[in-house]
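mind reviewing both lines:
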Amino acid sequence: MDLPLAELTGAEFARTTTYLNTATCGIMPRRGVAAVREMAEAAGAGEAAGFGDFERIARVRESFARLVGVGPDRVALGSAVATHVALVAAALPSGAEVLLPEDDFASVINPFVVRGDLKVRFAPLESLAESVDSGTALVALSAVQSADGRQADLAAVRAASAGHGARMLVDATQAAGWLPFDASPYDFTVTAGYKWLLASRGASYLTVSEEAQEALPALYAGWVAAESIWDATYGPMPELAHTARRFDESPAFLAYHAAEPALELLLGVGMAAVHAHDTALAARYRAGLAELGHRPVPGGAPIVAVPGLADRQPELAAAGILTAARAGALRASFHLYNTEADVDRLLNALADRPTTR
């Protein structure tokens, strides 16, 4: 990476607010905006570059695979986490038990609930590993909780799942992009591309272990799921892809044009550097909250929730400080485009000291 991390804010991002809301949606870097604009303008001009680029799609697959520590043969591309989870849910036999954390993100939960013929069981996140038993077919959970940044003990849950012969699905949406995350131990992982991965809605990622690929039906198999896509545009496809690409949806090219430069940026900076930067800002915020007498939900993630302060979100937004109100708490989230000055501005606002835009 040419630029030190501290210089990224102005060079790579054009934000006009004190943006502390990556857990809702990340900021697209300038290079991503340029890639989307280039394709959109080509589409508007009727040029071939506006049709989309499958070579770019292949590069995105490879970049995401590198980011989460698996081979590209384990990565499928789609449009939304709930769609990936629904594919896994559809593969379970009637009556199978799915164990989930209480109050996890809806996209992790609903595809199992709405089937109606699965046994869906909930347990507190902190005791999820102890709740796995011999009747559990699948454990599904978020690596980091969207509402408050609590982190799951993935190693303990994985050990318990393996010990009882259960498969495991991990939603890495609030982890991949700031946390060095290894997808390789899990049967399935799902990740939205528009938060910490800095792309846009319409890009999402499913990883499937080689063993699990054999048990997962390619229910969404369009022509892009074929081993040779250009030989499968009409009629029944001659052959499904031999890799997780068989689970691909037809790509939303604008979203993936945004994803390629964003992933390049993250890989260039490196997850260790991003993790250190993001968590240091969160620690500064937590220390400042303690001085103000506030008690955030404990943890070390760059997602910090303060119960009882959700009503402060509108006034902060009016002052140009963008946070979120979730589950009765004020949630701030810090990423590589944030600085210590952003943290201090939020703390000053919470202390009712004057803020300036």
Summary: The chain has a mean pLDDT of 95. The chain has two domains: 5-29+270-350, 33-268. Residues 33-268 form a domain with the Aspartate Aminotransferase; domain 2 fold (CATH 3.40.640.10). DSSP finds twelve helices and twelve strands in the chain.
